[in-house]
Each structure stands twice: as C-alpha cells, then as structure tokens.
Amino acid sequence: MNFDAIHTPYPSRRMTVYGSGGMVCTSQSLAAQAGLDILKKGGNAVDAAIATAACKTVLEPTSNGIGGDAFALVWVEGKLHGLNASGPAPAGLSIEAVKGRGHETMPALGWLPVTVPGAPAAWAELSRRFGKLPFADLFEPAIRYAENGYPVAPDLADGWARTFRRYSEVLQGDEFSEWFRVFAPEGRAPRPGEVWRSPDHARTLTAIAESLARAFYEGELADRIDEASRKTGGLIRKEDLAAYKPEWVDPIGVNYRGYDVWEIPPNGQGLVALMALNILKGFELGERDSVSTVHRLIEATKLAFSDGLAYITDPSRMNVRVEDLLSDAYAEDRRRLIGREAVVPAPGHPPRSGTIYLATADGQGGMVSFIQSNYAGFGSGIVIPGTGIALQNRGADFSLDPGKANSLEPGKKTYHTIIPGFITKDGEPVGPFGVMGGYMQPQGHVQVVSSMIDFGLSPQAALDAPRWQWISGRKVMLEHAFPEPVAKSLARMGHEVQWALDHGSFGRGQIILRGENGVLAGGTEPRADGVVAAW
C-alpha cells in the first residue's frame, strides 16, 4: 500500500500515526504505552504484545481477563506463524450434563459455559518461542497497575456500568458474589476517572510471571479453580487445566487483488472473512459508499457467514475441508447468488475432498496480531475467590443438538469468534489488523480490508468509516454516520435496515502497516479509548 496515495475522507478525532522504531495499537492507552516501554527496553514485537495483553486483563476487564482465550499471528524471521490458544470443554461437560440441569440451550452465565482458559498459556508459549526479554519482566506494568490502581477511562466506565446493571438483575447465587466484590467494591461500577485496583490480580499475575504460567495450569491457581468449581457446581477440574496446551497452526489465506489476507484456521471464524473476500474479488467495485458496493459487501458476508455457522467447529470434527470452502470454484458458485435484491442466506454445499485486540511492531521487522477475550464482556460472571480470575463463557456458543457441527462434546473446542488478521504482499509483511466484537469481527475485517485495498484509505480512515452489521436474514444495522441516501437505497433493494442507537456493537479495531521504507503507519479505533503508541 502506497502511504503517499492514501486519503482520509471521513472526519476523525485521530490521524494516522507514524513511527519507525516500534508501535503498539490497542483500545487502552495505558496498555499501549506499557507495550511501547517494553520495545524501548530492547524487547521485540512479541514481548510488547505479551506485556500489553497482560495489562489489558487489568486495564480493560470488561472485555477480557486472565481466564479467557487468545489467538495470535506472528511475523518473525520472514514467516507468518499462527497460535491457537483456545481451550476445550472440560471432560465433565456434555449435552447430557447441561440438559440434566434443566437447560435446553447453552446458558450464557455461570459455570456451564466455562471452557479451559488459553490466554496464560498463549503468553508463555509466545515468549518461549519468539520472546527476547525474560518472561517475568513483561508483567511488571500489569502487576503495578493491578496493585496501585489506575483511573478508569470513559468508554471503559460506560461498559462497566452497563454490565453491573445487568449482573445486578441476573446473577443470583453464591458463585457470583466474588464478581461483585472484585469489580464493584463500592457497590457500583467505577466511574470515569475513579481509581480501581485489584491486589488479587497482582498476586495472580505475579504467580503466572514467575512460573511461566505453570501456576495457572498445574499449581496453586489451578488448585483454586478446581476448589471453587467443586464447591459451587462447576465441572472444570485441575486435570482439564493440566492437560491443556496451545497449538501452533498454519495460517489460512486468500489473495485479494494482489494482497494476501491471512487468518487463523477453524475453530476460529476468520474463515468467514476469507470466504467473503474470495466472493468479492470477482466483482469490480464502484465507489466505496455507493449502494452497489455496500450491497455486494453485505451479501458476500451473509453468504460466508451462513457457511461459517454451518460448518465451523473444532477442526478435528469438521466435515468440510477449509480448502474447499476457499476454492475459487466455490466462491464463483456463491457469487452467482448475489443479484440486485437482498436474499436470506443459506449454507452452500462445497465439493468434498466483552474481546480485546492489539497489534505490535518492532524496528527489526517483527509484527504481531493478537486477540484475547472472555467472550461476552466479563465472561461467565464466575470469579475465582482471591485471584481476580474472571472465567470466560466461551462454551455458550456450543449447540445442544447432536446433529449440529458445533454440538457440545467433552474435550471439544467450540466455534470461536475472536480472530486476528494479517496482510502480506509478495511474501513480505504489510501488517496486522483486527476488529474485535463477537460476530461483528469478520464483518469488520471485510470492511477495513476493502477500505484499504479497494479504496486506498489510510489505517485510521478505514477504522473511522461508518460500518454496517448483518444481523440475520435480511436485517442490517447501520451506524448513525452511515450515508442516509445509501441506507434508503438498500431498503429499496430488500434489506431490512435498522439504525443503531450507539456504536457499541460495531467492533473496535487496530491496524499497523509497514511501508516499503520501513515506516510504520498505525490507526486506532475511534469508538474506544484507544491510542497508537509509537517511537
């Protein structure tokens, strides 16, 4: 991408930031600065990503935590590497166990949707393979913020307050009391500018740092998780934690107009973004904000999503090959379904043969696309007493229908929403990108990739641009800044257009691109408290 030719047609409170020594982009300014400090101390992009991610568990607990999952795409030594650190269902979690407790669908809160956390293992594995600084050094900023506290940022405070109000209504039972003690110590959510601290987080992060995460999976922290689970009705056990290992995987990608776009393979939903781009590359798009362009982007994404929701699950249980879903022949079949009218998508038949995102880059060519999440906000509502560990509710995506691809099984990984992205060209890195936010994520990937590659927008302009979100059927939600004439034309084409009341559901992204001269260009999400830290 030629930075000189990139333009910024959308009003923004931010401009693209440039640097050459290193860069960290994320949705929390203190975390980005912590990652940059690691780079200045001689760390590489992997070290900065770990330090930033650890900080985020303290500085943005509304979206991620120590008890969540993580994925990473790492460019180092001339190659792109993928890490899948999502955890499986505990051995004791089954369809029969869930239905035996009176549920016909997977609950979103409590112990039942808790799966084995992968984030601490991701930090340790990334450091072991590619890190430069001592692992324990990377946790010093996060431990300091947890111990001493930090002033809560405005967007963070807003999300915290909304969750507190909801949890106050729906969380009933002793297993949830620790959440209120840790995250609402004053009987309410912290207000903007108010200092929140958590010594429990500090002690847990110290134990993880000193043991290379073994304390979480085999030691004292694993014992505490097991004890809390047994006491209050959970099914996860220390044996589930001890058996867990993250997986190095080969990234999957498609070539989109001369650029290779990469994602983590299933069980992640990055495949959805790639299928949509594979469909779109057969069209000559007009203006970015023209109704024909927006219609095609929406329809391609709908078709890709219908396939993703039908087929994506634990890769060992998928009955369709990824390469078949990404074949040009299958993309052409799906492309023929896009006409002038909005359709209700259905999965095709290919031939058989609460998340945080951060991006880092160092001055030596290393780049990391990293994402971690507790899934829905704080996760399950379960916090392990005395540790600050908020456990994820990733298992809520499992189906209790044994005929579905993503049906619940003990030890199985569920369909996963969090996805890091990466772009290369002619075998060289262009940079990491990501848009967090549940099922908005592949839709955000499609929109920012198209904005940059098809229409020459800068990283910041691509993130600033108003977004659409496909909900289901013909229903599409638009941000308030979306052009009204285009919205009216979409409605005439059969789209059921709804205007969003706020920007909370449209994802939050970060982008770093490296130019041919080595200069880094970074953009951060205007819908969050984000910052680009560079030097």
TrEMBL record:
InterPro entries: GGT-like_enzyme, GGT_lsub, GGT_ssub_C, Ntn_hydrolases_N. Keywords: Transferase. Gene3D superfamilies: 1.10.246.130, 3.60.20.40. Coiled coil: none annotated. It comes from the Bacteria. The keyword Transferase applies. GO terms for molecular function: transferase activity. This is Gamma-glutamyltransferase family protein.
